[in-house]
Structure formats: C-alpha cells, structure tokens
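Morning!

This is the sequence you dropped in the shared folder:
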Amino acid sequence: MASRLTGRTVGEYAVAMAQRILLIEDSDDFRQIVSHYLGTHGYSVTTAENGRDGLAKARAEAFDLIITDLMLPILGGYEICTLLKQDSRYSSVPILVLTASKLQPKDRDLAVECGANDFCPKSLEPQALLEKVRELLAPHD
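The structure's back. Tokens below.
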C-alpha cells in the first residue's frame, strides 16, 4: 500500500533509506533545498560545499550516487568526474552533473566524456530531479 504523502510503498521507502547520496554544491540555498527534498523521499544525503571537500568525502565514505555542480570552487565537476571514474573503487558509482548555465551540447558531451552518467539543469523541477535520481539508482541487469 502506498503512502498518501510520498506515493511510495513501504518496500520502496526501505530501499531508498539504504541509498546514500553525496551532493556537492557551492550554493548554500540550493544545497539545502535539494538535500531536504531528497531526504524527505527517504535518501540519506551528505553534502559538500566545494569540489575538494566533495572529492574527499566521496573517497572516505561509500555512496550510491554523487550529484555535483559543474562550476565549483577549488575543484570543478568535470575534474571530480574524471578523478572518480579513473579509480576502480568509484568507477561504478553513478554521477549526476547539475549546472546553472544554459545547457550546451559540448558541455554535456564533455561531462559524459569525464564520466558523468547524466547531466541536467538546476532549473529542473524537483519531481524530475527525483526521477533522474531514481533512474540512476535503479538496479541494472
């Protein structure tokens, strides 16, 4: 039976509870909003406010998904993708890249080349972001 608040069954909620997301984002407001939103949908969200701290957290803890801004202080999203995907310990962790700038095909291509699994604008509706998260975390055969 699905919850009236979340639309999820107890089983779906339990699966989400076990899934950990690292959100690397330098905008305090955006970081808090996304973290809270994903948290209300059963995900455990750890945050970092710059690329260096995000990379350190990614290497120190086990995450099921990494969401990173493209333009970050100290170390950018492209570099984070490249460094994590080149390391066999993290190469299977999906990475979702967010950007505030207008999506350009060359930006998307470069993100994918660096190891991102998906790429989307920060202006994406919250429900659409949640669907992308669910897609990336879904078991693949």
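Headline: Residues 1-5 have pLDDT under 50 and may be disordered.

More detail when I'm at my desk.
O.
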